[in-house]
Amino acid sequence: MSRDLDRGAEAAPLPPDPWDPLVRISHxxxxxxxxxxxxxxxxxGNLHVWLxxxxxxxxxxxxxxxxxxPSEARFSAFLPDPVxxxxxxxxxxxxxxxxxxxxxxxxxxxxxxxWGCLAIVVATGLVMTDMKSPVTIAEDRAAVAAGDWSxxxxxxxxxxxxxxxxGIAKELHELAANLMLLLAMVHVGxxxxxxxxxxxxLVRPMLTGRGKMK
Amino acid sequence: xxxxxxxxxxxxxxxxxxxxxxxxxxxxxxxxxGDAVGDMLLDPTSPEGMLESLVALxxxxxxxxxxxxxxxxxxxxxxxxxTLDTARGKLSDVIATQFQAWGLTPAERDVGLLAxxxxxxxxxxxxxxxxxxxxxxxxxxxxxxxxxxxxxxxxAWFVEDLLEDDLTLAPNEKTAARxxxxx
Lengths: 214, 183
Ligand code: HEM
Ligand code: HEM
Known about the structure:
With 214 residues, chain A is an all-alpha fold. Chain A contains nine helices and no strands.
C-alpha cells in the first residue's frame, strides 16, 4: 500500500514482510495448539497430549531459531525492554507509534509472556502425565480398556509418592493455560490496534507475506 | 505472487518447504527423545536405549543443520531480492536501507550519499558548509561501519551483486538471442 510514502527518508527499518517461513509456521502451529487444547480438546485426552507435544517441539525449534535465524527472528532483535515497552504504549496512545525492525518492545514482552506460559503449561502437563510420551499413554490406555489393569498398578507406586506435586501441577497447568488464553486475546487486540495506528496490515506478513505491497 | 516470474516464486517456496520440514523434524525429535528418555530411565543399560539415544542425537543434529541451511537459503533470497531491487532502479531505496542497517547517523547518511555520487572531500565539505576534517572523519566512520577499506570498496558494495548476476545471466541471454535470430 503506502509503505514507501509512510516511511519517508528517515523512518526506522520495518519488520520483515513476510516474516520468514519458520516464524510463520511455528506461530500458527502454536496458536492452533493453544486454541484447540485450551478450548476444544478433552483435557488430558490423547489428542490433548499429542498436541501438547507438538507445541513442545514447535517451541523448541522456534527458540533455536532465536539464536540461528535471520536477524529479525533472533532474540537479539527483540530483547525484553520494559521501559521501551511503556514508551511504545505511550506513543501508541498518542497515535504516533514508531516502527521497529522486529517485534515492537511491547509486542516483544507479550511474545516472551506467551512463550513462557506455554513452557509452563507443557512442563506441568508433562509432570501430570509422568513424562510419558503420547505413544506410551495411548498404549497404556488401550491396555486398560482391554481389561489389563496392571499398567495402572505399576503407575500408582510412583504416582503415589508425588501425588502432592500432581495437584500443584494441575493447578499451575490450568492457571497458566487460562492466563495464556487471556494474553492471546490481548495479543490479538494489540495487533489490531497497532495495525490501525500504523495504517498497515500486520497480520498479512505473518500469513503469506508480500502481496499488494509492491 | 501473481504473474511474477515462476523462478522467483519457486525460490520463495523453497524456504517454506525447508521450514516445514525443519519443524516436522523438531517435533519428531521431541517425540523420539521423550520416548528414548523414558526407555533409558526404565533400563539405562539396555542396548535398545543406547540405540535410541544415538538416533535421538542424530535427529537433533539434523534439526540444527537444517536450521543453518534454512538461514543460508533465506540469506541467498534476500541478496537476490536486493539485486533485483537495484536492477529495477530502486538503488536509492537499497542504499537507504543499507545505510540504516549499518547504523549511519543522518549526517553520515548524507555524506555517504554524496560520496557515492562521486563528490570528493572538498566538494562535500563545501556543500555541507563543514570543515574538510569533519567530512574526512565522517567518511572514516562510514567505511568502518560498512566494513569496507575505503571509497572504492564502498561504491563497489552496491554494484557487486549486480555484476555477479550479470555474469551468470549473460550467456543465457546470448543463447536466447541466438535462438531468436534463427527462428
Ligand atoms: C505436553 C503437553 C500437555 C500435557 C501432557 C497436558 C496434559 C493435561 C492433563 C493430563 C490434563 C488433565 C488435568 C486433570 O484434570 O487432571 C490437562 C488439562 C488441561 N490442559 Fe493440558 N496438557 C498439555 C498441554 C496443554 C496446552 C498447550 C494447553 C493450552 C492451553 C493445555 C490446556 C489445558 C487445559 C485448559 C486443561 C484443563 C485444566 C483443568 O480444568 O484441570 N494443555 N492437560
Ligand atoms: C492463541 C493464539 C496465539 C498465540 C499463542 C500467539 C503467539 C504469538 C507469538 C509467540 C508471536 C511471536 C512470533 C515469533 O516471533 O515467533 C506472535 C506474533 C504475532 N501474532 Fe500471534 N499468537 C496467537 C494468535 C494470533 C492471531 C489469532 C493473530 C491474528 C489476528 C496473531 C497475529 C500475530 C502477529 C501479526 C504477530 C507479529 C507481531 C509483530 O508484527 O511484531 N496471533 N504471536
